[in-house]
Design goal:
mainly alpha, elongated
Length: about 120
């Protein structure tokens, strides 16, 4: 930084630094929002499934559907367990259906939806 000799120069430098600080804060807030989005359990599962598909080389919809169904089944078993209650059985099946559908959705569609929701909430 160069030496400032006038009050006008000092005020100008202060304004520039305040503008820079505001821009950096906005960038930090956007980064935090992106991190929060990526750390949601559904997005963690979805990203893991996508990485498995890329690593193993699954390109077919059949393989992706099988993985989604498997994750839905695991979610049902994790939440409900081995219960004989009819209510828990119905709840578990609904949970399995929801998780399977959410995981099988393409990742880019949910990002577009959330980014449009964030833009509308900022306005």
């Amino acid at each position: 930084m160069e030496t400032i000799y006038t009050i006008d120069g000092l005020n100008q430098t202060i304004q520039q630094l305040e503008i820079r600080q505001d821009a950096e804060w906005c960038a930090i807030k956007d980064e935090i929002e992106e991190i929060k989005h990526n750390l949601k359990p559904l997005n963690l599962i979805r990203n893991t499934v996508e990485e498995i598909n890329e690593t193993v080389g699954f390109k077919s919809n059949l393989a992706q559907s099988a993985i989604s169904i498997g994750i839905g089944y695991l979610a049902k078993r994790f939440v409900v367990g081995k219960s004989t209650s009819a209510f828990k059985g119905i709840f578990g099946s609904l949970l399995q259906l929801v998780v399977t559908n959410l995981v099988s959705k393409p990742h880019h569609d949910s990002q577009k939806e959330e980014s449009s929701q964030q833009e509308s909430s900022r306005e």
